[in-house]
Amino acid sequence: MATSKAILTPLKDIKVSSYQIPAFGRVPNTSIQRKPLMIYHSSFKQSASASTIEDYLSSVGVVSPQWRYKMFSQSHFHSTSHEVLCVAQGKAKLCFGGDENPKTIEPIVEKGDVMVVPAGVAHRLLEDIGGGFSMVGSYPRGKSWDMCYGNEGEEDQIKCIGSLGWFQKDPVYGEEGPSLQV
Asked: In this entry, which stretches build a coiled coil (predicted)?
């Protein structure tokens, strides 16, 4: 893992943004577990490719990388797992909190940024700025993810969010990472 740490910005040098997003309509956002949406700005260095990010996350051992893609343009959330999204290429404007929610968060993220998205937080792509936006999507080891849209009939799925555990180690920084301070 020592070699792979060369792609990671030291923890003391990153900025972390943290957001509590209230429930809106049938979307729970952070209201159930009270764990914030977190953005680690420039966590991975510009030299990091999708493959090296996947290898690094696997070596930390908290999450398992499962896909490479941009982000769905339809607002959705997960009830069975938290999600870690690492921007591997490009820049985009995202939406967290659900459509029409007055408390929505619309950050611009770029290569190297990491988002720790708690279960229940709605998210979608608003704009791929410049084209080529791509992320590595990861989930806690042993967890599978589902798709929820804030529709009627998802109430039982939403109840499951309360029983999900939080990270015992930070998915990017291990023993001392930002997700452990919440």
From this structure: none
Whole-prediction pTM value?
0.96
Q: Which long-range contacts (CB under 8 A, 24 or more apart) does 30-34 make?
A: 30/118, 30/120, 30/121, 31/120, 32/119, 32/120, 32/158, 32/161, 32/162, 33/118, 33/119, 33/120, 33/161, 33/162, 33/164, 33/166
**Distant-in-sequence, close-in-space partners of 121: CB < 8 Å, separation ≥ 6:** 21, 29, 30, 37, 77, 96, 97
| pLDDT single digits (tens) 149-175 | 999 999 999 999 999 999 999 999 999
Q: Give the whole-angstrom CA distance, residue 15 versus residue 125.
A: 22
**Which of the residues in the chain have pLDDT under 70?**
1-4
Q: How far apart are CA 112 and CA 96, in angstroms?
A: 19
